[in-house]
Amino acid sequence: MSANDKIQIGVIGAGNIGNVHIQEFSQIPDAAVTAVTDVYQPMAIARAKEYNIPNVYATYQELLQDPSLDAVIVAVPNDAHAPIAIEALQAGKHVLLEKPMAVNAASAKEIVKAHLKSGKVLMMSHQMRWESLNMQVKEQIEKGALGSIYNVKTGWLRRKGIPGWGTWFTQMHKSGGGPLIDIGVHMLDLSLHLMGSPKPVSVFGTTYAEFGPKKRGIGTWGKPDWNGFYDVEDLATALIKLDNGSTLSLDVSWAANTDFIDNGPYIYLMGSEGGASLRAGRGTLHTELFERTADVELTVDSNDEGPRQRMSRHFLDCIREHREPLTSAMSGLTNSLVLEAIYESSRTGQLVTLDWSLD
Ligand SMILES: NC(=O)c1ccc[n+]([C@@H]2O[C@H](COP(=O)([O-])OP(=O)(O)OC[C@H]3O[C@@H](n4cnc5c(N)ncnc54)[C@H](O)[C@@H]3O)[C@@H](O)[C@H]2O)c1
Known about the structure:
Elements: E1 7-12, H1 16-26, E2 31-37, H2 41-51, E3 55-57, H3 60-64, E4 71-74, H4 81-90, E5 94-98, H5 105-118, E6 122-125, H6 132-142, E7 149-157, H7 172-175, H8 179-194, E8 200-208, E9 235-242, E10 247-253, E11 265-271, E12 275-279, E13 282-289, E14 292-297, H9 307-321, H10 329-348, E15 352-353
The protein binds nicotinamide-adenine-dinucleotide (NAD).
Keywords: Oxidoreductase
Domain GFO/IDH/MocA-like oxidoreductase: 136-276
Domain Gfo/Idh/MocA-like oxidoreductase N-terminal: 7-126
């Protein structure tokens, strides 16, 4: 690939989010989606027709053998992330990997090891880091406006939002978990990033399943499969202790009997000099001036290109400039370690210390 060549991309998994990635990369002049595959072939063929993708492969292994491809996007159910990402890196492809990194920390460690050997870019797909309000808050944090951030409350609480009941989403061996691993991973990733990436040390958490097993709390994302089953949590709560002494509390649900403000994601950052709230599409900075509280409302440009465009371009920039992405392999592993520790803490009732060894 020369500096003027388009980066050629293959998409593995042409479902909901695979489609979103194809749309985003199709808008970028110096990239081209030239191959697609899906175990459900009609899906791959339909996407190829819609976006003029020249090559449809029957399997991801065949796609990985295509020497013209520089990079792949892995947009398959969670249990297939590790095997496909590892094979892709071994085949010499750069990888944009959907979240969560893997269904458990052991598989995430295998991906990190394959990445270290490969010398290729491995980027996690966490588009929330590229949301305008979140970026503006990060900029203020980097300028010192919040001082030292010592406590963060984050979460994503849905009242009635179980996705694809009975499909891979709600089967532990395929998904690795429920809302914690599905939407909690985004909030964990974004919070740690805004906090300046302190290292998580220990975790205390509990998970519950009060709706899913009774086929209640069903949302609109994904088509239910009533012949399937549900063995993941539908609510999780956790307190994470970081190596700089700060604390992060995380609450997520797909379903719960309460009246949440907007069913959406939120983050409250509390610092020694200032704070920030991000929720319901609003971002506010807080401080105290002249012994009074003072708030500054952040705004988003009306022609903002959106987080997914910025994220897609970042992936391409990292490939061209041999840079480590913002959402690096290590950030994916960090998230996996914390998520697994929350499940373990829930099972054992104990505080869990994170195991960072790569063996
Ligand atoms: N970043 C985000 O905002 C976001 C949003 C939704 C989903 N996701 C993640 O994206 C991934 C996919 O989710 P989705 O909602 O698109 O699911 P989906 O079920 O709509 O799509 C997954 C597709 O992968 C295909 N597939 C399964 N195994 C395959 C294999 N071995 N090779 C090729 N194709 C295979 C399936 O046939 C299906 O079409 C999940 O890991 C999910 O957590 C991320």
